[in-house]
């Protein structure tokens, strides 16, 4: 019985008004969660954790850099899963969500590159190096931009979304390349310090703010994704009846 | 199964021969870039020799972009593309044929004239076989990836700029391994690791790109 109700609920999400309602209800909670997590995380990162014995205070940028980098890649994986659902089941709201994920992912990729660059100047002595990790991250940014550009270039938004979904799946090849780039090529960027399995090579005191920031960034990704999807949906359906009813019967009366 | 592919290949090659000047454009463009390099960075043989692999590869990449805009568009406009789906052959096989003819027309001349370009930029003779090999393995990937980008942008009306933006991130690995191999060969090291990775990219592209290209074309004729 519960499974059946879940299934019906999932199918209802394909309907624009239901999807719109869900976005509107969920997004403030996600934003609130992000603010709480980020407040705790940033407080710990800036005041509680001691300075690094070599880098002093400048290492603290990692609490933004690392969650942003993770989210840039996780966002791409989420976008790819959405793209498969959109292409296979042709659900319009999922197509819109896939396209909404691209600008948010691009923003996190840009944030990751910018913070890395700011840290690199005092630490590596250069803003940029043509290292495997950095280059593959830059390529990820351009893949995100290509997806956004392709979606925007179509007059028929649905067709644009579907074509861009194919590009999303093609670009997925880059994700393992980014992830393993620090292990396959020994260049400037350090290897993975934090492991899900086994012991991390990071001081335990730094873990807590990093976890708070990571959770916060994930919530923010979700909130921004839902907000963007909702706006895109409203924009596409602005002449449809359910939007008019949403605005209120009075507006409908004026137009009629 | 084979006859539609053969017919398409014959038609594409015949068109390329009859529009001789147009088909040579990518090659002329390649040499225009190669000639500009010494004028831009200075004619010192040492400098030119060290940047030669990269410059030849970048020029080959840019040259392969030229014909992409017209790869599927004329067929879309006169309705031939729809016939690929209603006709006897499998659409994916026809897509592969079209990409293969694109490679024959734009890729093969680049490989044939690569020694001349290499000589113009003072590439050491020892690196020339690796350069030719890297072009032989790498230019089909350029055609495949370019064909995919061309299919993706087919339904838009400002395709050409977008097309190059889509191609660029996808060909970065090709450029890295190809030029890395040629540079290794120029220093007397083995290029087999680079060439192996380049071949892996080719296999990946040959297996996946035709499927994605066919799907993208299908969406665009709907």
Automatic annotation (TrEMBL), chain A:
<feature type="transmembrane region" description="Helical">
    <location>
        <begin position="96"/>
        <end position="120"/>
    </location>
</feature>
<dbReference type="GO" id="GO:0015232">
    <property type="term" value="F:heme transmembrane transporter activity"/>
</dbReference>
<dbReference type="InterPro" id="IPR002541">
    <property type="entry name" value="Cyt_c_assembly"/>
</dbReference>
<feature type="transmembrane region" description="Helical">
    <location>
        <begin position="132"/>
        <end position="154"/>
    </location>
</feature>
<dbReference type="InterPro" id="IPR003557">
    <property type="entry name" value="Cyt_c_biogenesis_CcmC"/>
</dbReference>
<dbReference type="InterPro" id="IPR045062">
    <property type="entry name" value="Cyt_c_biogenesis_CcsA/CcmC"/>
</dbReference>
<keyword id="KW-0472">Membrane</keyword>
<keyword id="KW-0812">Transmembrane</keyword>
<protein>
    <recommendedName>
        <fullName>Heme exporter protein C</fullName>
    </recommendedName>
</protein>
<dbReference type="GO" id="GO:0017004">
    <property type="term" value="P:cytochrome complex assembly"/>
</dbReference>
<keyword id="KW-0997">Cell inner membrane</keyword>
<keyword id="KW-0201">Cytochrome c-type biogenesis</keyword>
<dbReference type="Pfam" id="PF01578">
    <property type="entry name" value="Cytochrom_C_asm"/>
</dbReference>
<dbReference type="GO" id="GO:0020037">
    <property type="term" value="F:heme binding"/>
</dbReference>
<feature type="transmembrane region" description="Helical">
    <location>
        <begin position="166"/>
        <end position="186"/>
    </location>
</feature>
<feature type="transmembrane region" description="Helical">
    <location>
        <begin position="69"/>
        <end position="89"/>
    </location>
</feature>
<keyword id="KW-0813">Transport</keyword>
<comment type="function">
    <text>Required for the export of heme to the periplasm for the biogenesis of c-type cytochromes.</text>
</comment>
<feature type="transmembrane region" description="Helical">
    <location>
        <begin position="206"/>
        <end position="226"/>
    </location>
</feature>
<dbReference type="GO" id="GO:0005886">
    <property type="term" value="C:plasma membrane"/>
</dbReference>
<feature type="transmembrane region" description="Helical">
    <location>
        <begin position="29"/>
        <end position="49"/>
    </location>
</feature>
<keyword id="KW-1133">Transmembrane helix</keyword>
From TrEMBL, chain B:
<protein>
    <recommendedName>
        <fullName>Heme exporter protein B</fullName>
    </recommendedName>
</protein>
<comment type="similarity">
    <text>Belongs to the CcmB/CycW/HelB family.</text>
</comment>
<dbReference type="InterPro" id="IPR026031">
    <property type="entry name" value="Cyt_c_CcmB_bac"/>
</dbReference>
<dbReference type="GO" id="GO:1903607">
    <property type="term" value="P:cytochrome c biosynthetic process"/>
</dbReference>
<comment type="function">
    <text>Required for the export of heme to the periplasm for the biogenesis of c-type cytochromes.</text>
</comment>
<keyword id="KW-1003">Cell membrane</keyword>
<feature type="transmembrane region" description="Helical">
    <location>
        <begin position="99"/>
        <end position="118"/>
    </location>
</feature>
<feature type="transmembrane region" description="Helical">
    <location>
        <begin position="130"/>
        <end position="154"/>
    </location>
</feature>
<keyword id="KW-0812">Transmembrane</keyword>
<feature type="transmembrane region" description="Helical">
    <location>
        <begin position="21"/>
        <end position="41"/>
    </location>
</feature>
<feature type="transmembrane region" description="Helical">
    <location>
        <begin position="161"/>
        <end position="185"/>
    </location>
</feature>
<keyword id="KW-0472">Membrane</keyword>
<keyword id="KW-0813">Transport</keyword>
<dbReference type="GO" id="GO:0017004">
    <property type="term" value="P:cytochrome complex assembly"/>
</dbReference>
<keyword id="KW-0201">Cytochrome c-type biogenesis</keyword>
<feature type="transmembrane region" description="Helical">
    <location>
        <begin position="197"/>
        <end position="217"/>
    </location>
</feature>
<dbReference type="InterPro" id="IPR003544">
    <property type="entry name" value="Cyt_c_biogenesis_CcmB"/>
</dbReference>
<keyword id="KW-1133">Transmembrane helix</keyword>
<dbReference type="Pfam" id="PF03379">
    <property type="entry name" value="CcmB"/>
</dbReference>
<dbReference type="GO" id="GO:0015232">
    <property type="term" value="F:heme transmembrane transporter activity"/>
</dbReference>
<feature type="transmembrane region" description="Helical">
    <location>
        <begin position="47"/>
        <end position="68"/>
    </location>
</feature>
<dbReference type="GO" id="GO:0005886">
    <property type="term" value="C:plasma membrane"/>
</dbReference>
